[in-house]
Amino acid sequence: MSKHGISLNGENISNWFDGGFQDYLKHQTWLGQFRTLHEDAGDLIDGAQILKFHQAANFLAVTQIFKSLKAEEFNDDPVNYTRILNAFSRLSRGALVFKQYEDACARLEAARVAKLDPRRDLATYRERHRLNPKDVEAALQYGKALRATGQKSQAVAVLEQASIANPGNPQLLAGYGRALADNGNFQQAFDVLSRAHDPEDPDWRILSAQGAVLDQLDRHDEARQYYASALKIAPEAPSVLSNLGLSYLLSNELPKAEETLRRAHGKAEQDPRIRTNLAVAVGLQGRVAEAENIVKAGLPEDQATTNVTYLKRLLSRKENAQASVDKRLAKGAGRSE
Q: CA–CA distance from 86 to each of 11, 36, 77, 114 (Å)?
């Protein structure tokens, strides 16, 4: 671009000796900038930042083009210079697009994190349920949000009314049964879940939930039959394996509990419930340091410290640890749905 704002190309190359040369000198400062870009590209790649790889490639493209040039190519034909300038301009615009792409990804990530807040869902689905009490999805999500925010009795009431308004709906019956179990109404929960179960078209999630309820009723052998049926439909499903591992934990069969929970953890390493359950099974066998490593692996320091503190509280008195686990399970925590 000349000082007159005219693009450098073959038609106005006469401007080369009328101010355009000053543009040439000015753009020599770009060389230093390109060296910096090259270094930045290396840093981006070394940092293994996935969203930065395109930007790094852009930087490298600029520097490789410039590196391939020879000074005499400019002198032989100034049009070559304008062509390179235009290429640089396109690459610069590309860098801007990548920056916009990064910004969009950041906004999406912020929206994803915000969506994880159950209080946000609570307000959304409360209104949807109020406007249409027969909306099955709204009732299910509203009940789930109520449970997530500790309003378990209200979740039971909402899903009970929704089940009455939509008689025989298996999804609502399953949700209602889980809410009852979460609220400590185990026998009623099992009865409702049995109504949700269809022998002709069994749902492994419902079978697993029935097994979890039976465990709370100290009917462990029966519970494991339900887990076995669920695993035939969904082999190695981590949520079912987790519930089976807890079943062994409740009956103090610790080696079996550990082996099963390790299988579950191998399928869902990021699930905090499975991670904690495995750590409890390991810790109850006296391997406390190993258990602490399990609950804090790959987590930020503050979260890791919180998890270790909770685990130590569970295992502080080994003779009472089993009772502590039972109490936690009775509240519905640690179970996978």
A: 14, 20, 15, 42
Phi, psi for residue 156 in degrees, rounded to 5? -60, -45
Alpha-carbon distance 208 to 271, whole Å?
Answer: 17
Find out whether 151 and 183 touch, Cβ atoms under 8 Å.
Answer: no
User: What is the arithmetic mean of pLDDT over 251-265?
Assistant: 95
- What is the per-residue DSSP string for 207-260? HHHHHHHHHHTT-HHHHHHHHHHHHHHSTT-HHHHHHHHHHHHHTT-HHHHHHH
The domains located in the chain, with CATH, are 10-115 (no CATH), 117-196 (1.25.40.10), 207-337 (1.25.40.10)
Q: Tokens for 251, please give them.
A: 């009956």
Q: Is residue 163 within 8 Å of 143, Cβ to Cβ? A: no
Predicted TM-score (pTM) of this structure: 0.62
pLDDT tens readout for residues 290-325: 999 998 887 888 888 888 888 888 777 554 545 445
Residues 6+ apart with CB under 8 A from 162: 129, 133, 134, 136, 139, 140, 143, 172, 176
